[in-house]
Write a structure and sequence with these properties.
Layout lengths: L1 E7 L3 H11 L4 E8 L6 H15 L6 E3 L13 H4 L21 H11 L4 E5 L4 H9 L1 H4 L5 E4 L15 H5 L1 H10 L3 E4 L11 E2 H8 L3 H8 L2 H11 L3 E2 L2 H10 L4 E11 L10 E4 L14 E7 L1 H12 L2
Parallel strand pairs: 1-2, 1-4, 2-3, 4-5, 5-6, 6-11
Antiparallel strand pairs: 7-8, 9-10, 9-11
Helix pairs in contact: 1-2, 1-12, 4-5, 5-8, 9-10
Bound molecules: beta-D-ribofuranose and calcium ion.
InterPro entries: I/U_nuclsd_hydro_CS (IPR015910), Inosine/uridine_hydrolase_dom (IPR001910), IUN_hydrolase (IPR052775), Ribo_hydro-like (IPR036452)
Protein name: Purine nucleosidase
GO molecular function: hydrolase activity, hydrolyzing N-glycosyl compounds
Length: 314
């Protein structure tokens, strides 16, 4: 069974990914660590506990992490996820409490005690992970692989003209993680937007009817699909973090990916937070590329949605 830690800025699509992980028989979640991003870190922590409550399986510890990006403040995404990050629905309060240990300390302690077999999935800004890497590099090098929801490959609709939210929210942290030396898979924003990956109006309703947990997974995303209706004129639901979790659990769901030397733009007047995916060296370069990542740009949409539905339905 694969052992995982998920680092999350728990807003509404994170919540679905957390539920999927807790209901996935092929993994054991050792911990959830939280970070500021979609919403402030206190609310993200509460939302993670609430997701555990509604997953209705086992209860991994939840550790609260860093409250702000490394260098510059960043806006949250309440216009996409609601004031509480969970669609402002008013779900019941979780029974579980957060742990007193800090997320960064917990990451270092748990990974340090492992045998190099604990994988990391990140579905928020990379602040906690970067700080843990700076604080305990030998320990963090034990991580065999990181699956990151982040980055944009420029052929769709990132959050700014150049950047996807998780990277844009803390580009300095993302740059540290990319340069650190642990190989990673980056599931880009496009992967949840193309090839039928968004849930249709009908699929949202079908899923909502599949039990309390599935209804929670849809209803907490109501701000997101209402926004889609306002912007596109029809209701649909893009779920970047669940797509990322699905790809982690079942790589056969990947339709298009490529190896790259990935960097994050930390400066730039308009381009801070841009992910730069280098696929081949220029004719002027002598050094070979240092491939550090696999970039996922497309999944098999119907297969991903079936995988997700099977995990969250009762
Ligand atoms: C990412 O930002 C947030 O809106 C989602 O939770 C996801 O992690 C997508 O760009
Ligand atoms: Ca997220």
């Amino acid at each position: 069974m694969r052992k995982i830690i998920i680092d999350t800025d728990t807003g509404s699509d994170d919540a679905v990914a957390l539920v999927m992980a807790l209901r996935d028989p092929s993994v054991r979640v050792l911990a959830f660590t939280t970070v500021s991003g979609n919403i402030n870190v206190d609310q993200a922590t509460y939302n993670a506990l609430q997701s555990i409550e509604y997953a209705n399986t086992y209860k991994p510890p939840v550790y609260k992490g860093i409250a702000r990006p490394l260098c510059f403040e960043s806006e949250n995404a309440s216009q996409v996820h609601g004031i509480d990050g969970m669609g402002d629905v008013g779900f019941r309060a979780p029974t579980q409490k957060e742990e007193s240990e800090h997320a960064v300390d917990a990451l270092i302690r748990i990974i340090g005690a492992g045998e190099g077999d604990i994988e990391l999935i990140t579905i928020g800004p990379l602040t906690n992970i970067a700080v843990a890497m700076l604080q305990a590099p030998e320990v963090m090098r034990k991580i065999p692989h990181i699956t990151i929801m982040g980055g944009a490959n420029f052929f769709s609709n990132p959050h700014t003209p150049c950047a996807e939210f998780n990277i844009m929210a803390d580009p300095d942290a993302a740059a540290i993680v990319c340069n650190f030396g642990v190989p990673f898979t980056m599931v880009t924003l496009e992967a949840c937007q193309v090839n039928g990956a968004p849930l249709t109006d009908e699929e949202i309703d079908q899923t909502r009817a599949a039990g309390e947990t599935a209804a929670f997974c849809m209803d907490c995303n109501c701000t997101t699909y209402d926004l889609a209706e306002k912007v596109y004129g029809y209701r649909e639901l893009e779920l970047p973090d669940p797509v990322t979790y699905a790809v982690f659990s079942n790589p056969d769901l990947i339709k298009t990916s490529f190896p790259a030397e990935t960097h994050v733009e930390r400066g730039g007047t308009f381009t801070r937070g841009t992910t730069v995916f280098r696929k081949k060296k220029t004719i002027f370069e002598e050094r070979d590329l240092k491939i550090n990542s696999t970039i996922v740009t497309e999944v098999y949409g119907q297969a991903y949605k079936a995988f997700q539905y099977d995990l969250i339905k009762d």
